[in-house]
Task: inverse folding
């Protein structure tokens, strides 16, 4: 396979606390991908100030003005080659800020790209209970889930405040997850270029969600 050059991923995370352990993990995850020549844009719920899902983009009418900032972020999502989605575990659940952030945008903006889960917690579960829910969510918005998950138990022991770890299990899982996400992103990117379909093709900003997903119209057999 000819490797697809210039992959670009988005890292989403939803902890809005101060201080927060997300800041121990996120720089480490970003570095793992940048070391593999992937660029990463951060969508951080704390920085982006989406308080609650009032009106996702797909619920604006054809003649309604859509918020310029939302449209800008939406374009970035549509252009990404893959997603890294990071969550803490709050009573066994996904961090609510993460869903608030990701639900601002339509599934059609995420569809046909791979997604990788990073989960962490203070306790021994390593965020895995939230990660299992996140798998369902990420499938529902049309992304392809990686077999591996990076799950980090006892995050405050595993990572220093400046995002360093010497935990061999964490490093091994990070490497596996990064390699898988890049492999799937390259494969999907090649298919997208080959078939002519991109996620932009299923989403019309002036007449939202009117085009439908491309597979609905595609004849798979010759
Ligand atoms: C509301 C709340 C619920 C939590 N529930 C769990 C839990 O179910 N299991 C666990 O191991 N840790 C739990 N914790 C501890 C978190 O894993 C820990 O605080 C983690 O650092 C949260 O991520 P953050 O600091 O990036 O927000 C909880 C923390 C909060 C604030």
Result:
């Amino acid at each position: 396979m000819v490797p697809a050059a210039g992959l670009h991923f988005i890292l989403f995370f939803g902890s809005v606390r101060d201080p927060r352990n997300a800041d121990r993990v996120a720089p480490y995850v970003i570095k793992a991908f940048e070391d593999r020549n992937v660029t990463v844009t951060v969508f951080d719920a704390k920085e982006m100030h989406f308080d609650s899902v009032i009106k996702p983009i797909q619920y604006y009418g054809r003649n309604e003005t859509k918020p310029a900032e939302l449209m800008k972020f939406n374009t970035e999502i549509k252009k990404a080659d893959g997603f890294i989605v990071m969550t803490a575990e709050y009573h066994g659940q996904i961090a609510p800020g993460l869903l608030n952030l990701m639900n601002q945008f339509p599934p059609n903006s995420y569809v046909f790209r791979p997604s990788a889960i990073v989960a962490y917690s203070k306790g021994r579960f390593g965020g895995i209970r939230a990660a299992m829910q996140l798998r369902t969510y990420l499938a529902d918005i049309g992304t392809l889930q990686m077999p591996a998950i990076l799950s980090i138990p006892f995050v405050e022991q595993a990572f220093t405040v400046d995002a360093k770890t010497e935990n061999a299990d964490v490093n091994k899982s990070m490497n596996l997850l990064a390699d898988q996400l890049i492999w799937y992103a390259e494969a999907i990117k090649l298919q997208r270029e080959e078939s002519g379909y991109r996620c932009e093709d299923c989403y019309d900003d002036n007449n939202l969600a009117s085009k439908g997903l491309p597979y609905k119209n595609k004849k798979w057999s010759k």
